[in-house]
Amino acid sequence: MSEFRAKTPKRRNITTTVSNYRKHKDNLKIDYLDRCGYCNSIDTWRFVWFEIDHFVPQKYLKTIKDTDYINLVYACRSCNNSKRAKWPTKDEKKHNENDEGFIDPCDDEYANQFDRTGNGRILPTTNIGHWMYKALKLYKPQHEIIWSLDELDKLIQEIEDILKTKPNNQLKDKLLDCYREFMAYSKKLSNEGL
Fold it and tell me: Which residues belong to any copy of the HNH domain (predicted)?
C-alpha cells in the first residue's frame, strides 16, 4: 500500500466577491495543486475534464453563498458528477454523521480515509472512507489509470534528469521507446475517452 496523496490541498482565504463561482477556477487550480480534491487525479491529461464542485451542495446552502471560495472544490468531472447533491445530513454546517457524508478534501483527515495499491487503485480504510468511496465512485478504473500515467510521467522525468548528468545512449534509446509508447497510450485514451 502507498499513501493516497503526497500533499493535502489548502484553500487560501479568498474573500473576493465574484458574480459567478466559476471565476474562482484559476485560484482553485493553484490551491488544489492541479489535482482533483476527491480522487487526486492530475489535470494534465486531455481526456480528464475539471470542474468546480460545491462541497456543501447548492441546494443545502443557507448562510454560505454559492460563490464563497471556502465551499468550492477543484474536481474532475467524474467525481463532481458522482457527488452531485449527495449530502446525507441535509445541513450545511454538518458534513457527516454516523459514518455517512463527506470530509472536506482540504482537511488533513481526508487522506486518512484512503490508501492506494501499488498500481494506484484507491481503497477505503475507514467507515466514512468507505461511504465516500462509493458515493464518489472512486472504484472506477480511470482513477487507477490516471494515477499510473502520472507515476510513469514522473519516472520518465527522473530518468531524463539522470541522463542530463550522466549521458548513456543505450539508456536514452530505451527511455525514448518507453516515452513513445507512453505518449501513444495517452493519445489513445484522449481519443477514446474514459
Answer: 36-85
pLDDT tens-digit profile, the chain (194 residues): 788 999 999 999 999 999 999 999 999 999 999 999 999 999 987 667 999 999 999 999 999 999 999 999 999 999 999 999 999 999 999 999 999 999 999 999 999 999 999 889 999 999 999 999 999 999 999 898 888 888 888 887 887 787 778 777 777 777 777 778 777 767 766 665 55
Nearest to 65 by CA among 53, 51, 54: 54
Per residue, the 3-state secondary structure of the chain, as one string, reads: CEECCCCCCCCCCCCCCCCCHHHHHHHHHHHCCCECCCCCCECCCCCCCEEEEECCCHHHCCCCCCCCHHHEEEEEHHHHHHHCCCCCCCCCCCCEECCEECCCCCCCCHHHHEEECCCCCEEECCHHHHHHHHHCCCCCHHHHHHHHHHHHHHHHHHHHHHHHHCCCHHHHHHHHHHHHHHHHHHHHHHHHCC
- Pairing between strand 2-3 and 114-116? antiparallel
Owner of C-alpha cell 441546494: 59
Predicted TM-score of the model (pTM)? 0.85
Task: Report CA 25 to chain centroid distance, whole Å.
Answer: 14
